[in-house]
Design goal:
The complex is a heterodimer of chains A (77) and B (145). Chain A has 77 residues and is α+β, with helices and mostly antiparallel strands. Chain A contains two helices and five strands; from the N terminus they run E-H-E-H-E-E-E. Chain A has one domain: Ubiquitin-like (UB roll).
Chain lengths: 77, 145
């Protein structure tokens, strides 16, 4: 099972890459994705999450082919 | 209803005129417009430049959803959102929101709603470059209400 993980802005710098493909076998929710990708580093406070380009909570389930994104509070406009 | 992202210079007035030419004259009596422009100061520091990052795909979807919510609540004739991405400098326009409606109340309220929703939900991020050369991410938007 493969999922795509995206990082934006300060979380891109935190993670060291903008995008990665992950074998998500055994991964159930978004928080598992973060833990697996970041090797146990805690999710920074105020991090926002999107699954397939819709806002989601950390316990949102993850399925094959999903696009999971992590980013800081938005500052547009 | 339209959403436009500009990787190069955004001219809000030209964008506004071009969009309005596509509307039927006489169907609206009120046009409310908001233009946001880059300042040369923030949090006590002089700012030299800024880079606007976004999430291609999700940003457009969020802006379209915000327009749709405004349409359901105020039933305006039309709405337009235009936003810059990439590197900008003080004085450069960042965002344009325009709403055309039969009467001014719906135009004002929908324009305000779209702008505040964009500020809190649309995935854009600003990185400032200070006069000293230091770069920093803007930490969050303040409420405009």
């Amino acid at each position: 099972m493969t999922i795509t993980v995206l990082y934006f802005a300060s979380l891109r710098e935190f993670s060291g890459c903008p995008r990665e493909e992950m074998d998500a076998t055994g991964i159930h929710c978004v928080l598992d994705v973060w833990r697996n990708a970041q090797e146990g580093r805690p999710l920074p406070p105020r991090t926002l999450i999107a699954v397939n380009q819709e806002y989601a909570a950390a316990d949102h389930p993850v399925r094959e082919g999903d696009e999971v994104a992590f980013f800081p509070p938005v500052t547009g406009g | 209803m339209a959403v436009h992202l500009f990787a190069e210079a955004l001219d809000p007035w030209e964008t506004l005129i071009r969009h309005q030419q596509g509307l039927t004259a006489g169907c609206f009596g009120a046009t409310a417009i908001f233009v946001g422009t880059m300042r040369d100061f923030n949090e006590g520091d002089d700012i030299q430049a800024m880079t606007l990052e976004h999430y291609p795909g999700m940003t457009e979807r969020q802006l379209e959803a915000i327009e749709q919510e405004a349409r359901e609540q105020w039933t305006p004739e039309d709405a337009l959102i235009a936003h810059r991405v990439g590197r900008i400098h003080p004085g450069d326009p960042i965002v344009l929101v325009a709403v055309w409606s039969a009467h001014r109340q719906a135009a004002f309220e929908a324009c305000r709603f779209i702008m505040e929703a964009l500020k809190s939900r649309a995935p854009f991020w600003k990185q400032e470059r200070l006069q000293s050369g230091q770069q920093r991410w803007v930490s969050g938007n303040t409420s405009g209400m």
